Please model this.
Amino acid sequence: MKIMGEIEMYAWKRNQRVSANSLRCRKGFTLVEMLVVITIMATIMAVLLPAVNSVREIARLTQCKNNLKQISQAAQNHVATNDERFPCGGYSHFYIGDRKRGNNVKENDFAENSAVNQRGGWIYNILPYLDQENLRNADLKTRSETPLSMFYCPTRRRPLVYDGYNREVRGDSEKITLRFASKSDYAANSGPYTLVEITDRKSDKNRNGVIFRYSNIRLKEISDGTSYTCLMGEKYLDADVYLANKTGDESDDDSYLGGQNKDTLKCLGDGRLVMDRRGLQKTETFGGPHSQAMNMIFCDGRLAAINFNISSATLTNFLNRRDGNVVTELSK
Model:
C-alpha cells in the first residue's frame, strides 16, 4: 500500500510539472483572444477615423483660404500699380498670354489682334505679383504646363498638370497643340450673367462684373463698394473630372493662363452655389468641394465663407458691382 501511495504521489507531481511547463511555454493567442483584439481595434478605428479626416479637411480648408488670400493680394498689388485697375480678363481661352503686350487693353477696343491688347487671362496678368515673372516670360509650352500650387484646392487635387482639350493655343507668334495643361480651382467674377451673355462679345463693355473679356475696371467703377462686390472665389467642378477630364467638361479643359474662359471666369449661372458632386456638370457657377460653404474674396481683399444655400438675389448682388443693391449682413 505504501509503494502504491508513493507511485500515485509521483504521478501527481509529474502531472503538475507538465501542466506548469505547458503554461510557461504557451506564447500565442487563442482564436477567441485574437478576435476580441481585432474587434476592439476595429471599434477604435471606426471612432477615430472620422475625427482624423475632419482634422485633415480643416487643414485643407485653411490652405484653400490661404491660396485665395495670396491670389487676392496679387490682384490688389496689380490694382495699386496699374492706375487702380483690376486685372484684364484677356480675349479667349486660345491665348495663353502675350509676353510683349503688357497687361492692359485699349479703352473700348475689342479687336482680337490689336497690337496693344493683352489676350492672356487675369491669372497671366498677375503672375509678376506672385513672383512669377520668369513664368510669364517663359515659352508657350512651359508656361502652359507649369502648375502653381496656390491655384489648386488641396481638398480637390494635387498641383499637377492634367489632361485638357487637346487644342491649338497661342501666345505672341507661337502656336502649339496643348494636350496637358495646368489648371485653376479658382475663378474671377465676370458678373451676374447667363452663359449666353458671357460669350456675347457685343455685351462685353456693358458687363456688371469685375473681370471679363478685355475688362478694364477700376476701383471707382465698383460703385456698390469693394466690401460688397465679389472679386473671385472657388469654382464648381464635377468630381468625376478632378484628375482626368474624359467627359469634355468645358469648365476644366484649358490652361489656367488663357483669356476669357469658363475655366477661370464664373457668373450667376442658374443662381445657386453648388457643392462638387459626381456626374453633375455646371460650367458657369461658383461652388467648391468643401461642405456647407464656398470661399469668396471681395474686391477689398476680404475673405468670406458663403453658405451654399445663399439666395439667388443675394448672390446676384454680390456679383453685380453697380446695381445699387448692397448686401451688408456678410460684411460685418
About this structure: The chain has seven helices and nine strands. The CA atoms of residues 43 and 221 lie 59 Å apart.
